[in-house]
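Re: the request from the purification team.
They wanted to know what the chain is likely to look like in 3D before they choose a buffer screen. I agreed to run a prediction and write the result into the notebook, where they can find it.
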Amino acid sequence: MTDHDRRAGAPRRDDVLFSRTDETLGLFEVRAVDPFADLELLHGWVTHPKAAFWLMQGASLPEVEREYMGIAAAEHHDAFIGLHNGVPAFLIERYDPAEVELKGMYDAEPGDIGMHFLVAPVEGDRRVHGFTRAVITTVMALLFDDPAVRRVVVEPDVRNTAVHALNEAVGFRIEKKLEKPEKDAYLSFCTREMFHAALAERATTTATAEPTASAEPVATPAPTTTPAPAVQGVTR
């Protein structure tokens, strides 16, 4: 991530719509995408080689602008920038799966919400252990912060093994394979109860885990460390 990317779209405090603090990695915040102010930032993220599953490889600046202007104007689709300790670090799309992406392809239920997320690409060996899981946890917490939401619905590419593992870690279960026009996908669901059960299980595992004698010590990353590459966290 360049210095320009770090400065782009820096939010005023009243722009923040949701926040959570991770005990290890610090503050995560969410604000709405500004299709104009965030254009170069978004273009760099969604066209990066590590964001291949975002399906916007080769998109021009005007094409990315049209995409996010369309989302901003849509009735059933929203886009958000996620920040880590004040730095833009991930992208979220929230949508009504009965109207967007999955219309007519599954049995929708009241309280369903769909999501995509993308972690900003980072060059070099600067990955932070647990960052992408912290991002998807933030995304899920944002969605379930709306009391009307009962279930999160996703449809990641069947080849995206990294995100399948992440989804499972926050409570998703695969329902079935879907043949969509742009990809073969795994339709997956996570209810509010499944999400909280996954968090509780993770907390219990973390609290009871003990290092083995041969384990390498792992340093806790500083809160300002650059986030993990998008190859670890792209679901669309």
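For the purification team: Strands lie at 16-22, 26-32, 77-84, 87-95, 112-119, 151-154, 173-179, 184-191, 234-235.
Please add any questions underneath this entry.
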